[in-house]
Amino acid sequence: xxxxxxxxxxxxxxxxxxxxxxxxxxxxxxxxxxxxxxxxxxxxxxxxxxxxxxxxxxxxxxxxxxxxxxxxxxxxxxxxxxxxxxxxxxxxxxxxxxxxxxxxxxxxxxxxxxxxxxxx
Amino acid sequence: xxxxxxxxxxxxxxxxxxxxxxxxxxxxxxxxxxxxxxxxxxxxxxxxxxxxxxxxxxxxxxxxxxxxxxxxxxxxxxxxxxxxxxxxxxxxxxxxxxxxxxxxxxxxxxxxxxxxxxxxxxxxxxxxxxxxxxxxxxxxxxxxxxxxxxxxxxxxxxxxxxxxxxxxxxxxxxxxxxxxxxxxxxxxxxxxxxxxxxxxxxxxxxxxxxxxxxxxxxxxxxxxxxxxxxxxxxxxxxxxxxxxxxxxxxxxxxxxxxxxxxxxxxxxxxxxxxxxxxxxxxxxxxxxxxxxxxxxxxxxxxxxxxxxxxxxxxxxxxxxxxxxxxxxxxxxxxxxxxxxxxxxxxxxxxxxxxxxxxxxxxxxxxxxxxxxxxxxxxxxxxxxxxxxxxxxxxxxxxxxxxxxxxxxxxxxxxxxxxxxxxxxxxxxxxxxxxxxxxxxxxxxxxxxxxxxxxxxxxxxxxxxxxxxxxxxxxxxxxxxxxxxxxxxxxxxxxxxxxxxxxxxxxxxxxxxxxxxxxxxxxxxxxxxxxxxxxxxxxxxxxxxxxxxxxxxxxxxxxxxxxxxxxxxxxxxxxxxxxxxxxxxxxxxxxxxxxxxxxxxxxxxxxxxxx
Lengths: 120, 610
Prior knowledge:
Strand content of chain A: 15-25%
CATH class of the domain at 93-253 in chain B: Alpha Beta
Helix content of chain A: 25-40%
CATH superfamily of the domain at 93-253 in chain B: Swiveling domain of dehydratase reactivase alpha subunit
Oligomer: heterodimer
Mean pLDDT of chain B: 88
Number of helices of chain B: 15
Mean pLDDT of chain A: 93
Number of helices of chain A: 4
Distance between the termini of chain B: 18 Å
Helix content of chain B: 25-40%
Largest sheet of chain B: 7 strands, mixed
Structural class of chain B: alpha+beta
CATH topology of the domain at 93-253 in chain B: Glucose Oxidase, domain 1
CATH topology of chain A: Rossmann fold
Strand content of chain B: 25-35%
Radius of gyration of chain B: 31 Å
Shape of chain B: elongated
Number of domains of chain A: 1
Strand order of the largest sheet of chain B: 7-13-12-8-9-10-11
CATH superfamily of chain A: B12-dependent dehydatase associated subunit
Low-confidence stretches of chain A: none
């Protein structure tokens, strides 16, 4: 995984770790928009792994303890540092639905803000 | 040895007490309970009776065949029903408001201008301020670019109304902050080229101008007559973080009052007629004045007329007795505020409307218990007898509560009606039946919180609340915290939930836990505390509650986690010892009548022998 030196300011964000292919990049951008609409900072980082592993990585990097993982097939996971490693908070199946990615970004922000999730 | 079963068919549950009698010794060996099948007093009850008997026998070595005698009570022939009718309604015609609370509106501030679709902005060269309307086909980056360009060209864009949930995304990309209201579902309904005002408050604050009738008057230059007309708009917008008001030439918004009608109460000595709109206090005062009531009718052709007719029709159908014999013997009226969708809104806005909830009790002819007894006897092959009147049986049962003695009053708080009975020191009994109990409280909770269905309202009534504060812990309404070892399901995250035994049932509303708790407690207070006082006044010597010493609460609603406390507290003011019954020292407030049936039979027979 690419580990450039991240500053505390950068990691004071909801971190989105995504694989480095066009689909995952696009979905990550939509997830970022979902986070922005909730007025929270986001940090996108390329990495490899399945979406659950990526979200785990992301939440460990995030000082807010909230991470989103997006793999190259478009599967998206949302997790929190306190969650067991094998259990995401939310997960959406692989695909190219950008709406789902944005919703997941919004839900990541809601997880931090402690307000109820939106499902569709 | 003989096995005897007492069976009490109630409005919602059927209860059984089974005792073994050896010579002159009586011993209760089992109790059972099951849902009443069909309406109390109909042959459909038999299924429920058999279920309850089986429930009682399941931990014994006996079967139904082993029972020697089943005792039924002379059930009180009262059945209750509830209804609710809103008496105000906000309708907006020829004018539009958007008064919803999108979770994330964009920008801050206040803007007044003419509405214009974003596609027409490029061709616009006027000097008048513009409020942009943006439908879902526009991407946020595109919208931001268009607005920025317009601002560069000196076009006065002062606000925007957006269909997508893009308010913050657009706002973050603008050179100047303008108020943006987003998530407007029916953007196509917003008229163009009309004067409009957009207001977005800072987070944590609510709008100030559009929720004030004079604020709206200032913005739109209204005269005093027109200002009166915008009151419903201002009212519907109070408490919102963002709002849009659009004035159309024929602007006409009104809070229409539906003719609610009059209730006519016919008593033995005199009659009364009371306007529903005058509120529940007035209605209940009239009810008390006219008592004893022979019948209650609503003025034909009005809401309340429809309401009382419905109650009578339902009762007549259920009991299979003619409609003209259905006379309403008591009503309980409660004022309510219910959220209702504003007619003519474009984002699903709601306004609080006044409503009146009514519980009505219908006295039928004697319920055909004898027929049920014969039918049941055929079905199970065991002798079935009618032992006695419900109120007397309940008193005999209630007296098995440790610490009680005659004279004693009991209050039976059930699902449909609140009943009370008293036994004097000399053994005379009096009883009364009033409309309104558990079902009424459930209806109030459902309506006032605008819940989807009766089941969740029933859960809110019966179980304490908690707020899910993290994936691993919840905070109860008393402030204590419960931790879970496993992460909680995502759909309950951050929701207010009811703690239903081991499961957490989310309540899908935006109401806070405090609000839900207040509504729940108020519903119970308005139904039960009021009805207990009404009932006791009717059976107390000289109508004076202070002359009562002991009041024992029985019935399903006495099992509630807070109703008995509320009643105890209210009656403490009258220096009455009031509390929940503990039938046979072990059954709690359940099983009073079933127990009373067995005891009554036993004491009659042992006296006979002696």
